[in-house]
Design brief:
Number of helices of chain B: 25
Order of helices and strands of chain A: HEHEEEHEHEEH
Number of helices of chain A: 5
Number of strands of chain A: 7
Structural class of chain A: alpha/beta
Strand order of the largest sheet of chain B: 3-4-5
Oligomer: heterotrimer
Helix content of chain B: over 70%
Largest interface: B-C, 66 and 74 residues
Strand order of the largest sheet of chain A: 2-1-3-5-7
Strand content of chain B: under 5%
Chains: A alpha/beta (147), B mainly alpha (638), C mainly alpha (290)
Largest sheet of chain A: 5 strands, parallel
Helix content of chain A: 25-40%
Distance between the termini of chain A: 13 Å
């Protein structure tokens, strides 16, 4: 494993976007970032800027209003990037599945790497999901030429 | 070619050219005369520099001519005052004509042994006037064509315009060569005339009002100089400046100098006389570039540089310094609130002149050097900035700098030149900052509480200038703009010559600032003070520290090379800015908002509107200025 | 005699070469201490290095072709300032060199055109307006006391600078807090996680440009700490101790105070810092020290 790979695993900067969620999952995400769970020890930092983020945490179902914003934020993130759909609404549309105003899960708009179901998701599950994401990163070759 | 001839050329040639330009109102002839005059003046100033200086008196016929022209001038001022119904002008005109007549015909005291004394200081001013002045006049050729085309004028009044522009060069040269207070006073009032006529050139209501303001404030200076003449004659028996400078500084000699200082304040628009310079911005931009930044306003600084050696250690000199630094502080802060390009430049000019006056009046070898360094580099930088501002204003039809955002994509060449001009005003790599660095070192040579307070004022003012230059600089490069805002930027040959000429000169003299100090600054300082500079290849050593310009330029070159290498190797996709994910396709500055409507965002500039308002600051500071000037006079009388 | 000079030179050169590493380690230590103060474990010490390396490897997005050059300008001018500081050159000249670096960053932030970046850039200017006069006054104090702006003068003066210019030392605390972008003065772009106007002045930097800016920021912090250590130049251990204690206080203050706005920043730094130093200098004149 090169230094670059190791650094990518040890430094995950997160962009958190609420796509129409009831805020239940969002509160749990914030809880994960608090000192009780302290995800910063894994190098995870909630940076609000897509241009500097590695992971996009999405909650809530995709709908016609937020699909453009979601796509835009995803496009503004440079590779290598991961998307984590947090909560059942983000995974499949959840309780709002098949409602006329929702499109369903977030993967209808952008490619998702990790699905974390739950309503609401528990912080421990979020951390598990991050570990899964890291595994995925380890297995993936980086998108562009390595230094 | 002997120095007397060179002096005569420097004063006489512009007069001849001006008259020719007045009479021959043809574009091509005008270009030829201006270019030829420029060439001759630049050459003659270099030759005069080589010659080193001279002391002589032109013939008696010239003395008589000056008297006749002077009274003609004063009568014209009275006429102007009556025509514009300005009581101040009439009263001040009378306050000059009556004493002058008395002095000339009753006292008969106007004769002086050596009328022309040309030394290193005179030559420095000549170099600035002839070189920068010539370039600005060449710029004016292109500018006035655009200006008159814009105003859709049927008959060109450029003959009058260029008559006064070139006449100013003659008057400036004459002033700095003169040793007779009467001749100094005469040339001084000729510059007032040129200033008046040039500000009112466009003949709009605003122009006429502001030119009258400039006129009466200038006349205050004239009255002060008449006062100086009288005091000098009745104290030392003649009106030779060189004799006055070596006289024992008794109460009345100091009064003469105080009056000269007040005259200097009127010319350099120090508090409380700053109003005329701000108002003068209504004039066509070449006027601002020539008179109000790089040549005429330097007369005030020149005066203080002349009298400073004679008033070392007196309370007067610190009083003058205080007026200078106070002006610098106040104008730098007010400039933070200004939204119009020329007003920012005007306030900055007044402030920098105040700084130069402060340095000269602090009267140490280092501070005197700092004043001269600032004088030289400020003339180039400010002239360049005004010229660029004029071009941009002509193209965009606005002076509001908020509307100038993103100029680097709309008018790339002019924007880049202006950006370098702004950088040259407040960042190391260029000479103005070298001057400021030297100025901050003043306190060491005489650590007094007043000295420290004044330098602290300078530090605050300096920070304010950094702020307003930097925010203006940043606004030039705001890039994502809607397509179709790029303009065709056609710069005439005259524009290119003037912009790149001054820019090139600024860069060369900054790179070679050590040489400039050795060749130009030290001869002047040496006349009256001990030397403090020790120049070697990389470093300028002064008695208080080292300034290294060349390593910074080396770093700059490294940055360009490394930056370009980095960009070539890593590249990068250009992305629109972050707008919370609501970016609109194809419009980098628009975002989607309520009801899916598309709105373009707009970030207003930072102007401290609630804290710094001209309505509050200007009257208070003008009042403070009046009190300070009165205090100066009181200082010498007590 | 030659040996001490060689030793000094070697230390200076090593200081310059290792400044980025020292800066990164200090940043890591900063995050660790902050975490412990907040009752957390915190990231590993080498975390900042992982961050910068990861940033370097990201797909490059830039705001314009000017941005990489300006960002390199920021880094190079800060390094120049550091070199001049290490070799004890003219303090005022060094301050102006740092201004050059800051202006490069600010213009790069304006360059992107983003409203967040724009607001961050102007707040960065206000931050500069807050601390630069303090640095210049400190330089003035050094010049008045030792006779020259050359930092070498501090080393040959018979008293440590802390004794003659205590107010300037206190003012350095303000400078450090503003530079490290710690509360209460983190108005233009907070240290790592805390958001202000998205990322404030850093909003539109990404990938390799962000990595270079981070690197530059580390070196700038090392620079200021180096300057603080000169307040006891006669003994570098004590000097480093002084610098590190102010650094620790900055972290402590960050965890206690909330963010204030720019007016507060300007007011407190000027009223406290500026006036203090001026009073210090006047006091020295009155006491006859200078």
């Amino acid at each position: 494993m090169t230094i670059m790979d190791k650094s990518r695993l040890k430094s995950l900067w997160v962009l958190h976007y609420d796509c129409g969620s009831c805020n239940g999952c969002d509160i749990e995400i914030l809880a994960a970032l608090t000192p009780k769970f302290d995800v910063e020890r894994f190098g995870i930092v909630n940076i609000g800027d897509p241009k500097q983020a590695d992971v996009l945490l999405v909650t809530g179902p995709a709908n016609n209003r937020n699909k453009d914003v979601l796509k835009n934020l995803y496009d503004q993130m440079p590779q290598p990037k991961l998307v984590m759909a947090i909560g059942t609404c983000a995974c499949t549309g959840g309780i709002f599945h098949n409602c006329p105003n929702t499109l369903g899960g977030v993967d209808k708009v952008i490619p998702v790497d990790v699905y974390i179901p739950g309503c609401a998701v528990r912080p421990e599950q979020i951390i598990d999901g991050v570990v899964l994401a890291l595994e995925k990163l380890k297995g993936n070759a980086p998108v562009e030429e390595d230094e | 070619m002997n120095p007397e001839t060179l002096v005569t050329i420097n004063v006489g040639l512009p007069v001849v050219s001006a008259l020719a330009l007045l009479v021959l109102n043809d574009k091509r002839i005008r270009t030829a005369i201006v270019s030829l005059s420029a060439l001759i003046l630049v050459s003659s100033s270099f030759l005069l520099y080589q010659a080193g200086g001279v002391v002589f008196s032109p013939g008696h016929i010239f003395e008589q001519a000056v008297v006749i022209l002077d009274f003609a001038l004063l009568l014209y001022f009275l006429y102007a005052g009556l025509k514009t119904k300005s009581p101040q002008v009439v009263l001040l005109g009378l306050a000059q004509i009556i004493p002058a007549a008395y002095f000339e015909f009753v006292v008969k005291g106007t004769h002086v042994e050596n009328i022309m004394v040309v030394d290193s200081l005179s030559i420095l001013l000549t170099l600035i006037v002839n070189i920068v002045g010539s370039v600005v006049v060449i710029y004016a050729l292109s500018y006035m064509e655009e200006h008159e085309h814009h105003l859709q004028m049927e008959k060109s009044t450029q003959n009058r315009f260029f008559f006064f522009m070139i006449m100013l060069l003659a008057a400036m040269n004459g002033l700095v060569y003169s040793n007779s207070l009467y001749w100094i006073y005469f040339f001084w009032e000729v510059t007032t005339l040129c200033c008046y006529e040039l500000i009112r050139h466009d003949m709009t209501e605003e122009a006429i009002q502001n030119s009258t303001l400039a006129l009466w404030m200038g006349l205050v200076g004239g009255v002060a100089l008449i006062g100086t003449m009288f005091v000098s004659y009745y104290t030392i028996g003649n009106i030779s400046l060189s004799d006055l400078l070596v006289a024992t500084p008794g109460q009345y000699v100091l009064l003469a100098f105080a009056l000269m200082a007040i005259a200097a304040f009127t010319k350099s628009a120090q508090l409380p006389f700053q109003g005329w310079l701000l108002g003068a911005m209504v004039a066509p931009t070449p006027v601002s570039a020539l008179l109000h930044s790089s040549t005429m306003v330097n007369i005030g600084v020149y005066t203080i540089l002349r009298i400073a050696p004679a008033i070392q250690g007196t309370y007067l000199t610190y009083g003058i310094a205080f007026v200078g630094i106070f002006t610098f502080l106040i104008t730098s802060i007010i400039a933070l609130s200004q939204k119009l390009s020329k007003r920012i430049l005007a306030y900055s000019t007044v402030g920098n002149l105040g700084l130069m006056i402060f340095c000269a009046a602090m009267n140490t070898s280092l501070s005197y050097s700092a004043a001269i360094i600032l004088l030289v580099f400020h003339a180039m930088s400010k002239g360049l900035l005004f010229m660029c501002a004029g071009i941009i204003e002509n193209r965009l039809h606005t002076r509001a700098i908020e509307d100038w955002a993103g100029l680097i994509t709309r008018l790339p060449i002019t924007a880049k030149v202006m950006m370098v001009g702004i950088i040259s005003m407040f960042l190391p790599l260029f000479g103005v900052l070298l001057g400021k660095w030297a100025a901050i070192g003043i306190t060491s040579t005489a650590p007094s509480i007043l000295g420290m307070v004044m330098v602290a004022m300078m530090v605050i003012g300096s920070s304010a200038t950094t702020l307003f230059w930097a925010k203006w600089l940043g606004s030039f490069v705001i890039t994502p703009l809607v397509k179709g805002t790029a303009k065709n930027e056609e710069l005439s040959a005259g524009y290119k010559l003037s912009l790149f000429g001054v820019l090139g000169l600024n860069i060369l003299t900054s790179l070679g600032s050590g040489y400039v100090i050795k060749a130009i600054v030290t001869p002047i300082v040496e006349m009256n003070y001990q030397l403090v500079w020790n120049i070697d290849v990389l470093t300028l050593h002064s008695q208080v520290g080292d300034f290294m310009i060349l390593p910074l330029w080396g770093a700059l070159v490294a940055i360009f090379i490394l930056g370009n290498l980095l960009f070539k190797s890593k590249g990068g996709e250009i992305k629109p800015p972050y707008l919370s994910g609501e970016n609109v396709k194809d419009n980098p500055i628009a975002f989607r908002t309520t009801a899916d409507s598309v709105v373009e965002y707009n970030v207003a500039g930072m102007f401290f509107d609630s804290e710094i308002t001209e309505a509050r600051w200007v009257p208070l500071s003008t009042l403070a200025g009046v009190l300070l000037n009165l205090a100066l006079l009181a200082l010498v009388m007590l | 005699m030659v040996n001490t000079m060689n030793l000094e030179r070697t230390i200076q050169v090593l200081f310059i070469i290792f400044a980025p590493i020292i800066g990164g380690l200090l940043a890591g230590l900063d995050r660790k201490i902050t975490a412990r103060m907040q009752g957390r474990v915190g990231p590993p010490l080498l975390q900042p290095f992982y961050d910068v390396i990861k940033l370097w490897g990201k797909e490059p997005f830039i705001a314009s072709s000017l941005q990489p050059i300006l960002v390199v300008g920021y880094l190079v001018f800060i390094m120049t300032g550091l070199v001049l500081l290490a070799f004890r050159r003219d303090m005022l000249h060094i301050i102006f060199t740092l201004t050059l670096a800051d202006i490069c960053l600010i213009v790069a932030a304006y360059n992107s055109g983003s409203p967040y970046s724009n607001l961050g850039a102007r707040r960065e200017l206000l931050a500069m307006l807050s601390y630069e006069p303090l640095m210049v006054l400190t330089a003035m104090g050094i010049q008045i006391i030792t006779g020259s702006f050359l930092l070498e003068g501090i080393f040959t003066y018979h008293l440590p600078l802390l004794v003659v210019l205590p107010a300037a030392f206190v003012a350095q605390q303000f400078i450090l807090i503003i530079d490290m972008k710690k509360s209460p003065y983190d108005v233009s772009g907070s240290s790592h996680a805390h958001q202000e106007l998205v990322r404030g002045v850093y909003t539109e930097f990404s990938g390799y440009t962000m990595a270079i800016v981070e690197l530059g920021h580390w070196i700038k912090t090392v620079f200021i700490l180096g300057l603080m250590s000169y307040f006891w130049a006669q003994n570098p251990i004590i000097g480093a101790g002084l610098a590190l204690s102010l650094w620790f206080i900055a972290i402590l203050v960050d965890n206690i105070y909330p963010r204030l706005n720019w007016k507060h920043m300007l007011r407190t730094t000027w009223i406290t810092g500026f006036t203090l130093i001026l009073a210090n200098l006047v006091g020295l004149v009155v006491l006859g020290v200078i």
